């Protein structure tokens, strides 16, 4: 994940069932001889770190146990080539997305490239932190996509971890259990969060001169999408009264918005929106100076444009 003193984590939110114009990031991946699936962020859409592999019993033969084969872009060729991982009967696999996350947006949110001559059913769980897990759904037969809304998962949380567990349906082959080539996020997200103390003086909303450089450094992420809604959200700590904090966070959002519009101009390709939260959504309890600093923040989320949602409603 992207990290620095002012950039806490980065996610770019793009959704994948509508192919709106982009600058070469999106990519089609073949599912079978006749079908492909489109992932808007291309190669960075995939899980890229192995957390845990628990082989089931009976276990697959050794050549199908190379756990790193489930990472990055899919590269399945045929059943005899072991560039996928078999879970074994009842086995599980836990992976992490480190340069992106995923969340519940319109349409399917995840796609698991389950391969091989048999397509074994498996349970899918997701987590923000790798500790607390939420049931996301199942893959079975030829359907390997997951729509998080069907599991009643909220549309604000960003997830970074995924666990898949074989459901013991087919346990007799030499690659027993589900066979996984790759795990991709259709609704891949990159969220930009900046420490407000980097941007503003205490209780002020005019950008520091040095803050402009911090905002400018984020432009390369936004420009990866040709058309988007850019949502700017402002948060404060609990010092001061609630009304003043709401006004302060709103004015800070406007300052960041004005800077972005100064860079992008009045292009019709970007729509800017602001949302002030004041002290209402702290990341941590406001019981220490360190926690208060973490709560004073501005979040920039690049979302699909209005016509993206309109296109989904037409299908």
Would you kindly provide a written description of the structure presented here, covering whatever features stand out?
With 315 residues, the protein is α+β, with helices and mostly antiparallel strands. The protein folds into two domains: 41-188, Galactose-binding domain-like (Jelly Rolls, Sandwich); 191-313, OmpA-like domain (60s Ribosomal Protein L30, Chain: A, 2-Layer Sandwich). 17% of the residues lie in helices and 28% in strands. It has helices spanning 196-199, 209-216, 219-222, 242-264, 289-295, 306-313; strands spanning 27-30, 36-39, 49-54, 85-86, 92-96, 101-102, 110-114, 122-127, 133-139, 145-146, 161-166, 179-185, 188-189, 191-195, 228-235, 270-278, 297-303. A five-stranded antiparallel sheet has the order 3-5-11-8-9, with no helix packed on it. The chain has a four-stranded antiparallel sheet with strand order 4-12-7-10, with no helix packed on it. A hairpin with a 5-residue loop joins strand 1 (27-30) and strand 2 (36-39). The protein is elongated and about 65 Å long. The two termini are 35 Å apart. The model is unreliable at 1-24 (pLDDT under 50).
Walk me through the topology.
Blueprint: E1 27-30, E2 36-39, E3 49-54, E4 85-86, E5 92-96, E6 101-102, E7 110-114, E8 122-127, E9 133-139, E10 145-146, E11 161-166, E12 179-185, E13 188-189, E14 191-195, H1 196-199, H2 209-216, H3 219-222, E15 228-235, H4 242-264, E16 270-278, H5 289-295, E17 297-303, H6 306-313
Parallel strand pairs: 15-16
Antiparallel strand pairs: 1-2, 3-5, 4-12, 5-11, 6-13, 7-10, 7-12, 8-9, 8-11, 14-17, 15-17
């Amino acid at each position: 994940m992207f990290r620095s003193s002012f950039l806490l984590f980065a996610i770019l939110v793009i959704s994948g069932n509508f192919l709106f114009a982009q600058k070469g990031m999106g990519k089609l991946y073949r599912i079978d001889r006749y079908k492909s699936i489109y992932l808007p962020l291309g190669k960075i859409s995939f899980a890229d770190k192995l957390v845990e592999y628990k082989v089931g019993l009976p276990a697959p033969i050794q050549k199908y146990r190379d756990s790193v084969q489930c990472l990055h872009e899919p590269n399945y060729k045929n059943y005899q080539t072991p560039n996928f991982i078999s879970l074994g009967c009842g086995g599980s696999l836990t992976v992490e997305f480190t340069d992106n996350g995923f969340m519940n947006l319109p349409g399917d949110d995840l796609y698991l490239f389950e391969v091989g001559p048999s397509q074994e059913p498996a349970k899918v769980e997701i987590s923000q932190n790798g500790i607390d897990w939420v049931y996301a759904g199942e893959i079975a037969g030829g359907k390997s996509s997951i729509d998080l809304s069907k599991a009643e998962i909220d549309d604000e949380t960003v997830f970074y971890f995924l666990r898949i567990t074989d459901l013991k349906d087919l346990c007799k082959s030499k690659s027993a259990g589900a066979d996984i080539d790759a795990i991709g996020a259709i609704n891949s997200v990159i969220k930009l969060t900046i420490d407000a103390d980097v941007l503003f003086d205490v209780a002020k909303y005019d950008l520091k001169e040095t803050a402009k450089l911090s905002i400018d450094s984020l432009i390369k992420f936004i420009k990866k999408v040709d058309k988007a809604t850019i949502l700017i959200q402002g948060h404060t700590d609990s010092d001061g009264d609630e009304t003043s904090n709401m006004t302060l966070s709103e004015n800070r959002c406007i300052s960041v918005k004005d800077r972005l519009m100064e860079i992008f101009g009045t292009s019709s390709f970007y729509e800017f929106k602001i949302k002030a939260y004041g002290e209402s959504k702290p990341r941590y309890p406001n019981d220490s100076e360190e926690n208060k600093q973490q709560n004073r923040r501005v979040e920039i989320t690049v979302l699909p444009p209005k016509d993206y949602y309109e296109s989904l409603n037409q299908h």
